[in-house]
Amino acid sequence: MNNAQDILFKSIQQGLSELYSISTTNISFQKTRKEFEGDFTLVTFPYIKDAKKSPEILGQELGNYLQQNNAQVKSFNVVKGFLNISLNDSFWLNYFNAVKNKSNIGYKAPNSSGRKVMVEYSSPNTNKPLHLGHVRNIVLGYSVAQLLAANGHEVIKTNLVNDRGIHICKSMLAWQKFGNGETPQSTGLKGDHLVGKYYVVFDKAYKAEIETLVKEGKTKEEAEKQAPLILEAQKMLQQWEAGNPEVVGLWKTMNNWVYDGFAITYKELGVDFNKTYYESDMYLLGKEVVQDGLNKNVFYKKENGSVAIDLTKEKLDEKIVLRADGTSVYITQDLGTAIARFREFNSLNQLIYTVGNEQDFHFKVLFSILEKLGYDWARECYHLSYGMVELPEGKMKSREGTVVDADDLLKGMFETAKATTEELGKVEGFTQTELENLYHLVSLGALKYFILKVDPKKKMLFDPKESIDFNGHTGPFIQYTHARIKSVLRKAGEYSTSEIETIQVNDIERELIKSVYDFEAVLEEAGQNYSPALIANYVYELTKLYNRFYHDVTILKEENQRLKEFRLQLSKCCAGVIANGMNLLGIAVPERM
């Protein structure tokens, strides 16, 4: 409970006791809505029965009590049973003096919660490069990890690479047949792009075979199953699982090309992982889990030899956990991976999967199976489900090669940031290296903020040009405001940072302090809801408010020295909160622009 609410809690508790003989600890506040006057609002309805008063009268009597018995309460008003309470400026100044020089306002002490949380994000396939959909996954997962750490949890950031399966064999087979020995070195392509190229090549050749078989009289379904390429890919998967040296050797070579490519993209995005898991290491454990489930009668063998589980009572239907040919499916390795993680980190409290909402059903099945297998920690597994990213042209399709490649996106964002920044004339006095760094900072800020300001559960439409508007609801607008504050502070030179006590604050100064005060509660709520959007929109509102302050009051030319010092301190404090908030989104802010 924070300071202001603690002060009000005790006074209200005492007031309810003295006025109505009500003894309760069930007292909660909310921030007063913008359309009403006040700092905090108490809902009076829970107490009217015991008090034998109408909501309005109870609010009026309790408000009078607070004003007479609590020196921090300046005024109050009652609107239909909602008691809106305003605190004195002395409270806000005392709060400001207490936090203005803190580097991490609102952050909990490291590991203060005692909880250990694993956050999985990225989780790519090694048959194609990262694309815009992956970017939303990566920046969301990374930001949620930042939020949880700021809320005092020990966070383990993980990546699960899907490096085996029929889709991987498709790229391998196409390269074998049509690649003519191409390598990243011989083509100049990043490794993930080269492998992704052959995934598309396979799909085109496979569709051509299907078309031929259909013309020969096969149904489309028959053609899809009997096309030579898919049969060869299935055989290659079986050979891989059997440890065929030639197939395994090609698999290692092509996967290493992809890992080198991924590493470049991750570095460009400014994200990292504490540990990377590979599904090729986990699928055998998954098979052991299936056998264990068979022994426990959790799973059953079907007539065709496949292994399944009946989840119809859970309204999840029947689920295959092992194919008839003995090869694994996604759920097999996911079972093994989950178990391996909780074994490795035996004090793990929660496992969060950052995966798009098209996999909602998959995770319901996964968690249900883990519970049926007797793993109590399955209840601590959470699917951070997010909406898809779409373009003005519609959905992206990997197999058809119509995705927005992450590397191309980053290059395009850099060029857009460069053009926009130069057009606005924000490049004077920078060296070429400093300009390159600034463009990179702005482009990443634009991309990440545009994605993270949207509630994770909602699908989003990505517009690169809109994301770099320096005057809109964007990362660059916030970055530029931070640079503006830093410019003010540099021009001010040395100034006193001593406590501000007897000073008359105006409305916008008070609102700025109150906005800084709100950061802790927003950070806590964002962590509880796994929602960077709450932080993104909070920082935007603080930034807008500071810009009003910057335009409406005198700072550097203020003649009253104490008032000037206060406004500089307030500016520095706002810059710190903006920087901290953006850092939680994985976004850096520039010192100058």
Structure overview:
There is one protein chain. The chain has 593 residues and is α/β, with parallel strands linked by helices. Among the domains are: 3-87, Gyrase A, domain 2 (2-Layer Sandwich), CATH 3.30.1360.70; 165-273, no CATH class; 416-584, Isoleucyl-tRNA Synthetase, Domain 1 (Orthogonal Bundle), CATH 1.10.730. The chain contains 21 helices and 14 strands. The chain has helices at 3-20, 48-51, 55-69, 89-99, 132-150, 166-178, 184-187, 191-215, 220-226, 228-241, 245-269, 279-295, 330-344, 360-372, 406-423, 432-452, 464-467, 475-492, 507-529, 532-552, 561-584, and strands at residues 29-31, 40-43, 73-79, 82-87, 116-120, 154-161, 275-278, 300-301, 307-310, 318-322, 350-356, 381-386, 389-390, 460-461. The strands form four sheets. Strands 7-6-5-11-12 form a five-stranded parallel β-sheet, with helices on both faces. Helix 5 (132-150) links the parallel strand 5 (116-120) and strand 6. Helix 18 (475-492) runs antiparallel to helix 21 (561-584). The protein is globular, with a radius of gyration of 29 Å. The two termini are 39 Å apart. The model is unreliable at 396-401 (pLDDT under 50).
